[in-house]
Amino acid sequence: MVDVLIVGGGNAALCAALMAREAGASVLMLEASPKDWRGGNSQHTRNLRCMHDAPQDVLVEAYPEEEYWQDLLKVTGGETNEPLARLVIRASSNCRDWMRRHGVRFQPPLSGALHVARTNAFFMGGGKALVNAYYRSAEALGVKVRYETPVTEMLLDGDRFVGVVTEAGERITAKACVLAAGGFESNREWLREAWGRNDRGEWPADNFLIRGTRFNQGVLLKAMMKAGADMIGDPSQGHCVAIDARAPLYDGGICTRIDCVSLGVVVNREGERFYDEGEDFWPKRYAIWGRLVAQQPDQIAYSIIDRKVVGRFMPPVFPGVVADSLPELAAKLELPVETFMETLDGYNAACQPGTFNHTVLDDCMTEGVAPAKTHWAQKIDTAPFYAYALRPGITFTYLSLKVDDTAAVRFADKPSPNLFVAGEMMAGNVLGKGYTAGVGMSIGTAFGRIAGTGAAAAARAAHTIGRH
């Protein structure tokens, strides 16, 4: 019997496996995907949001605990567990040396591109390189990894973990377990159930694209719900981004994001604006736009910019629709030209004089138009004009297992003695709604390490009990 079983294969699972192994436990990881697709959503990440009180290696200036907390408070609208959030924030300040010991390398962010040189540490080679580094380190330390081994059933004795059953019917037991198998964002039926029908009779989830792995079906979340584990979070909440409508159904990752939203206007299928595009810096507000687009007819919208802002944002992978006039652009997009022009003319007339600066919260705003645009409001009047179609791109879901600072799964508000959880399966404790860049990796790293340490200790305790 193995000491610690890890179910999952992404960042949180790997952090748990490494910590458990470092603590002396024998460790087996079960990853649902083939080896080539290992790593879950972590393979698509780029950075980790890090608290720091002074300049550190790849991070400039300072990003103190209170500012990090206020950023998180703002995007979640207060729907967060403050003690657990602060645990994550503090853990983000001192994990990088441990990560480096396991082969992760960091690089400075692209200066001026995303306003995150102060707040986020970027992985050299992105999330795929991080995942590969952790797997190399895990295997060198003796962690056993089995791919293409989805778990379909949990074996429990009350609140105590006994084992799992795999899709092939194999029973695997262990002294302790860490669940880190992701959310249910790839389960279309569950998404439909969570989002329901809108007042137009549409099923919004039918038009969602999945930014990450196709293997996150939520099987273990369902199993734990059925077993009576304490849950937290709204199943319709998640990290949902407005991405290129031409993105693939799965695994589009970071390169499908459209980053020019804050520099222009966004209209729906009816040619109307529906939200303040300049509310805040893009890394702080980009994650609200998937949900906003999901609420529009046909779950589609269009980001409209002109030549003046080209070069001021990360260019999309696919070229936009281009036209020499706004009416021509509307026609190419098959939008109602008259309504579209009323929207653009009204917006342009509302733009007030100011000093445009996309690197700060500038004084360029609108007056007398709804919705207002509170920063970076410039007239869209310089040909050529560009448009990018947007769809909701769901990254991960926030329905979670409820935890405390031990990462133990809870039953009737009591912690399991040997079953722990990390990553997306518990992120809803910190993220009730909303998102800010890099915080998912902060949560997975912090709780993965806590869960791995806890599982190793539980396995030692079981061994001691067994000897007596």
Quick description:
With 468 residues, the chain is of the alpha/beta class. It contains 12 helices and 19 strands.
Question: How would you characterize this protein structure?
Answer:
By secondary structure, this protein is an alpha/beta fold. The protein has two domains: 2-183 and 218-233 and 399-467, 3-Layer(bba) Sandwich (FAD/NAD(P)-binding domain), CATH 3.50.50.60; 239-393, Succinate dehydrogenase/fumarate reductase flavoprotein, catalytic domain (Flavocytochrome C3, Chain A, domain 1, Alpha-Beta Complex). It is 28% helix and 21% strand. It has helices at 11-22, 65-76, 82-91, 96-101, 126-141, 188-195, 219-226, 282-285, 289-294, 326-332, 337-350, 439-467, and strands spanning 2-7, 27-30, 47-49, 106-107, 120-123, 144-146, 151-157, 160-166, 171-179, 209-210, 231-232, 238-244, 265-268, 301-306, 321-323, 385-397, 400-401, 408-411, 414-421. The strands form four sheets. Strands 1, 2, 6, 7, 8, 9, 18 and 19 form an eight-stranded mixed β-sheet that branches. Strand 1 (2-7), helix 1 (11-22) and strand 2 form a beta-alpha-beta unit. The longest helix has 29 residues, at 439-467. It starts with a strand and ends with a helix. 53% of the residues are buried. It comes from Shinella lacus.
